[in-house]
Amino acid sequence: MLRPLYYLCKVFGLASYSYVADRRNKRVTTDYGYLNYMFTAIWLIVYTVGLPVELLRLDHEDIDSQILFITFMVYIISSYTSSIVAIVCISIIKRRKFLEILENISEVDNKLRYTVQEETFMNRKVMFNTISEIIFLIVVMSMVIIKNIYVYKSEPYDIIIQEAISSFPEFCNALILFQFVNLIFMVKQRYSHLNKRLTNWINFALSRPIYLNTENVRFSQSDRRVDQVNKTSLFVSRYGNMEGTLKQTDIHVLRQIYSELYDITCLINDTYGIPILSATCWILTGVLFCVYESLINFKERGGEDITYVLAVMVLFFNVTLFCHTATNEARSSRILVEKLLLERNCRNEIVEELKMLSFQLQAMTNEYTACGFFPLNLSSFISVVSVIVSYIVILVQIK
Q1: Which of 165, 180, 285, 319 is least surrounded by CB atoms within 10 angstroms?
Q2: Cα dihedral sign, 168-170-173-178
Q3: Residue 284 contacts by C-beta under 8 Å, 6 or more apart in sequence?
Q4: In angstroms, rounded to a whole number, what is the distance separating the alpha carbons of residues 119 and 193?
Q5: Cα separations in angstroms, 387 against 284, 380, 399
Q6: Rounded CA gap, 13 and 16, in Å?
């Protein structure tokens, strides 16, 4: 499902293993090779050497404002540092964590037991999301490289190459954000599938009104005047059926699935926490630099700076939106379980198991954060936008 994005990340040094998925047996394997390590080493050298080179080139840039010079320097440092951190954390230190995440998702799928149609639909959604992001990134990358070649066409070839390579850290940061978003999207789909299952249970329970007799035995109201009736209680198995008996083991399987999804969320936060935090700093410093530069040199670089600000803010909005919706999808499970507890069509042992599931969901809060410093949700995005707007207002007043 993540194969196209994986290979693009591999070229940029963000993956140090080859990804092979057997969809029939739901297994994932790795194949370490020198080519994988070579890509990682090459880009690590490029970014490590490129940072001091870019800083030395600042002395030859015609920048009148000292504040603009400092903001530009901070932006370059954050851009290259974010790429280096992403490669070191994901491809070297925690190179097996990405594979572990995929393996855990496969284990959850084995317990969910999708139908062929459900699996096909989910895979298509992930593939569409991945391919659309890749196409968008390739188009933007091509436009930036062509623009740099056109602007510096009269310069020596080494200057043109340096300008082309100088934009690579930004695409590397965008790739790590895309990889992070796609993993969150996969987890969100599993929560959505579980919520649909819980909703079906609730709807089926509501369609069977009951009454409680003096011996604490539940009967269907439609069967009150029938002496001998074959009674069928509520059931929804993990295979998607809607007939039979709801078993205690089915609820226990749900508890195991929710526990594994919570572990996957924690694993994603642990793997991508520091890279996401550094990428967020890159976005903020880039926005502040472009805003300040557009106010000083609006006629020369105003359009380019505004375009860049909109692009990176859309990228940050995409990350916070996916994290926000995934968190809300996980929280919806608590509400659905509570609604199911209000129904009286289940036996006492099933009710006890549902109560344990409710307590479990309250304790396991699924939230995505930037290394624990702040949550990734729409509230954080609004806060960032508010800070940027306040910064623009202050700059306009000073000018």
Answers
A1: 165
A2: negative
A3: 384
A4: 11
A5: 10, 11, 18
A6: 7
CB 148 within 8 A of CB 274: no
Q: What is the pLDDT of residue 247?
A: 65
**Alpha carbon distances (Å) from 381 to 369, 384, 387:** 13, 5, 10
DSSP β-bridge partners for residue 19:
30
Spatial contact of 374 and 234, defined as CB atoms under 8 Å apart: no
- Say how far apart CA 261 and CA 209 lie, in whole Å: 34
Please give the biggest Cα pair distance in the chain.
96
212 three-class SS: strand
**Do 309 and 295 meet the contact criterion of CB atoms below 8 Å apart?**
no
CA–CA separation, 151 and 147 (whole Å): 6
Nearest of 257, 265, 276 to residue 316 by alpha carbon:
276
Look at residue 375 and give its three-state secondary structure: strand
Q: How far apart are CA 84 and CA 101, in angstroms?
A: 22
Nearest alpha-carbon partner for 368 in 289, 235, 230, 276: 276
Specify whether the backbone of 240 is left (phi greater than 0), alpha (psi in -120 to 50) or beta: left
Q: Outline where 152-297 has alpha helix (H).
A: 157-166, 168-206, 248-296
The amino acid occupying position 112 is L
pLDDT > 70: percent of the chain: 71
Between CA 120 and CA 126, with CA 125 as vertex, the angle to 5 degrees is 100
The residue ranges of the chain whose pLDDT is under 50 are 16-32, 209-245
> Rounded to whole angstroms, how far apart are CA atoms 254 and 256?
5
Q: Could you tell me which of 23, 3, 328 has the C-alpha nearest to residue 188?
A: 328
**Tokens standing for 330?**
């996980």
